[in-house]
Amino acid sequence: MIILAVDAAGKGLSVAVADADAVRILASAGLNVGLTHSQRLLPLLQSLLAAADLDLRQVDALAVVNGPGSFTGLRIGVATAKGLAWALQKPLLAVSTLEAAAYNALSGGWQPDTLACPVLDARRNEVYTALYAGGEAGRLSPREIWPPAAISPAALADKLLAELAPGQQVVFAGDAAELIFADMQAALGGRAHLAPSERRFFHACACALLAGERREQAKPPAEVRAFYLRASEAERNRLARLKADKAAGDVQ
What we know:
Layout: E1 2-7, E2 13-19, E3 24-31, H1 37-51, E4 61-65, H2 71-88, E5 92-95, H3 97-106, E6 115-123, E7 126-133, E8 143-151, H4 153-163, E9 170-173, H5 177-188, E10 192-194, H6 204-213, H7 233-251
Parallel strand pairs: 1-4, 4-5, 6-9, 9-10
Antiparallel strand pairs: 1-2, 2-3, 6-7, 7-8
Helix pairs in contact: 1-2, 3-6, 4-5
């Protein structure tokens, strides 16, 4: 089963094609040059397939990293994957950004009891995060310990201090990992580790492999949605205006 995967959820943009039956990445490509995904995603996909000597018609399913992450990036990635899946009449699979980042981090040769804490920049002094352990025997998918949430780095450090067993380590991945790592080290000492940069930003390979493992969960493209942990700034502003207008009307 050939799976074409797209990740446009963060600052890094990546694409990958995998042979799910062999659990093998056939080709991958990534860019970390800022949020210009709308201009770069389709050319990157085309060059990837050409390099792998594949045609879109040979793809059996598509996969997409569906959030949380950048609102604009998620819309671009999910819309592109849905459009291709619809045009090709292929199924579509969605993989959490945090789960894909955790898989990437835990694949870096850490001790078996090392936990992965993906952190994505949510702005407003918060990160999107969750906590994962390695998958069960014979499974690629990491095991979720905490569900996804948007919290401050200080609150994250407190939660990790309460969670980690003596001697247990945690590796940080995602586009906010380097931003908050000094704070995590101050709280956790030598138990905090930073994933290498090649395992921190690009999630399409993980998306393709994890999607292959859960291929029975594939859906028609119309049923796949981006996963947002909170409303966008535009939506928050709209709700604030509606609330203010309602309050003004009540006063009159």
